[in-house]
Structure formats: C-alpha cells, structure tokens
Design goal:
Layout: H1 7-16, H2 21-27, H3 33-45, E1 49-51, E2 57-59, H4 61-64, H5 67-77, H6 96-102, E3 113-119, E4 122-129, E5 132-137, E6 145-148, H7 151-159, H8 164-169, E7 173-175, H9 178-182
Parallel strand pairs: 3-6
Antiparallel strand pairs: 1-2, 3-4, 4-5, 6-7
Amino acid sequence: MVGDRWTLLIVRELLSRPCRYRELQDGLPGIATNLLAERLRGLEDGGVVTRDDESRYVLTGRGKGLAAPVSELVRWGALLMNEKADSDAFCTRWLEFPLDLWFSGADPSRPPLEVEIRTGDETITLESRDGQVHHRVGQAVSPDVVISGPPDAIIGLLAGRDEPQTAIERGAHILGDFHLVERLRTPNWLVPPGGVARKPTREKTVRNEAAPPE
C-alpha cells in the first residue's frame, strides 16, 4: 500500500499539512500529474488518505500512523545527505522532520530562544520554551539568532555535522550566538529507539534527486 514510488513522499507532504492537488505537485518536483492522481486514488482506496470539507487531501488516522516510520527513514538517511547538487530539488518544509529529530524531547537546560532559518523557498522559525523546541513555517517575531544560506550548509550546521566556520565557508550566514542553538540540539538524535549511536560525520554522498530512485 505504501511501497510504490512516490507514495511515502506524498505521505510526507500530508504529514505536514492538508494539501490541495496543486500543493502536492509543488511539493513533489518531478512527479507526473497522472502518476500523482493514481497514487492518491490508491491511498484513498486503502484508507490512508481522504478529503476534508475544503476538498484538500488529508491523512486519515491510519495514515497518520505512518509518521513514526517516515521519521525513522529520515533518521536513517540523515548521514547520507551531505551535499546538494545543482540538479537536486529542495523545499523548506522538508526540514520539518529533521528538525523534529535534531531538537526532540524536553530538556530544562535549554535556554529560551527564537531562531529564524532562511533557506529554500520559505522561512522556518524555531522557538525554545520551557525546555521544548517547536517549529513553524514563517518569520520570527523577534529572533535571537538568524541563520541563512544554501540548504546543504544549513542542514550540516543544524545537524551538528559541520562547525559554524565550515558552514560559513559553504555559504551560510549567522547573525547572533549560534552556541545557544547548539544547546537546543538533542545530543543523541542519531540513535533510533533501541538502536546504537552513530557519529554525524561525513559519509558517502547520496543525493536526494528531484525524481527519487525506485
């Protein structure tokens, strides 16, 4: 039901928010419109996707149950996403799952902080309050730290794979004290439940092409 090409990417889009057909197309660069329609029909027939009162596609309760496996696939692939080629596609909303991994859980030692991330087609804001970190699409009201630049540099910086100076050399700009952001990061975010820790070091690059492989 969810193993066909593009299907889990459709689920990923709908885990972020309800989508109209055009919004799904925009979030899935490279998908043919007839294939998107076919995949949506299959997901609807399987009880994974339905329509809301505004005719937007939304996940059913069963569909929302895919959040955990999608999140673990993001964790599994995190170390493989090192560099972005010119032909690769990127949407800012795709950062939402990694952000949930990098800044998960509750830690009372986290400072209150508002971080604005400018990369891709939109802006994302991180807010640290009461030991928890939440994110939303949109600009910060009064950011303490502003990070901007190309996606690969921003991802390496936020994931803890690259030092700030390395990210700057790769095109990132940091306004404010990034060490405060580092205090928000979950130290063992690479460890799956019941798994073994892996170091966030550079490994063989596997690119996220606009048209993912089978």
